[in-house]
């Protein structure tokens, strides 16, 4: 168990309840403690976690703090609030704790917030929520706003004031089954590069993780790599020379560590590390770079290989035909105008027809409530 996302209803809970919830959870997990726990900002919960889960890294989701900024600071700062907000957003992007502290102090003096109680609270808790302090904790992207919104939408779809725990788990099971039946996500995962690493990763990773890795792989092509005397690498964007990363390479263990710490935090390799793997002629990533959390075999998804292959073949045919058509029609303006007009007409007709065809795979409504990580 590497991490948990704790969902507690805090509106009517007493502090003692937090202790009881956590003890019950640990008991339920047969005494095994999580490596990381991600929660909302709540001081009572923080104390309970420190007491009951002393070896667990507690992360307060920054996405749970951002919506409170307006309530806390818009009145005292008035017209300066928007500027403060962009200062605060820039803090979240700071990579090192030194950079964070420097920028924080700048912000506090710029807006004269030395004695503000919320600033004092946030500063005292910075090691819990500031990404520059929590970057090395594996949180599998669950602190992002996108994930929190998907959980929120899912819970609103299955919870009501009368929902019991049994019914909640039934709903989760039903939603997962619907997603399995649809297989929608996996069918349309197509490769976007000719890099063998991508093909291999597609066979191993869940759709969400594959999409994330694919995005990094595409962007990795924009990075230059130079080897240092100690065997590590400088990696920098071809335009942004000032954002250089250091990738440390330990050949004996096939271990690679980037200064951005993306893999340590999300379990998805960053573009910088991927660039180094490509330069080193890797055609598949070492097994350890596919964490259990992101493997198809450990997710609730299952794949229909035949269906997936058929779709791949169809997609390749479509792509090849479109490319040929584009090349032929680009030869002259007359050709281009003719193809464009005819194609648009035909595509709109087809689109309307397809939209009116029955869809018997996905029951409407419930599928949309399912968090994309399930
Ligand atoms: Zn990196």
Structure description:
The chain is of the alpha/beta class and 374 residues long. The chain has five domains: 3-60, no CATH class; 64-134; 147-182, no CATH class; 196-298, no CATH class; 305-353. The chain is 54% helix and 8% strand. The protein contains 18 helices and seven strands. The chain has helices at residues 15-28, 43-52, 66-77, 81-92, 97-110, 117-124, 126-129, 131-134, 145-158, 165-182, 184-187, 196-204, 207-220, 262-266, 271-279, 305-329, 333-355, 366-369; strands at residues 3-5, 36-39, 57-60, 223-227, 233-237, 245-250, 255-258. Strand 2 (36-39), helix 2 and strand 3 (57-60) form a beta-alpha-beta unit. Helix 1 (15-28) packs across helix 2 (43-52), helix 3 (66-77) runs antiparallel to helix 4 and helix 13 crosses helix 15 (271-279). The model is unreliable at 360-374 (pLDDT under 50). The structure holds zinc ion. Zinc ion (ZN) binds at residues 245, 258, 260, 262, 270, 272-273.
Got a strand count? Answer: 7
The low-confidence parts are: 360-374
Helix content: 40-55%
Structural class: alpha/beta
Task: Please report the number of helical segments.
Answer: 18
Distance between the termini: 16 Å
Bound molecules: zinc ion
Topology:
Elements: E1 3-5, H1 15-28, E2 36-39, H2 43-52, E3 57-60, H3 66-77, H4 81-92, H5 97-110, H6 117-124, H7 126-129, H8 131-134, H9 145-158, H10 165-182, H11 184-187, H12 196-204, H13 207-220, E4 223-227, E5 233-237, E6 245-250, E7 255-258, H14 262-266, H15 271-279, H16 305-329, H17 333-355, H18 366-369
Parallel strand pairs: 1-2, 2-3
Antiparallel strand pairs: 4-5, 5-6, 6-7
Helix pairs in contact: 1-2, 3-4, 4-5, 12-13, 13-15, 16-17
The structure holds zinc ion.
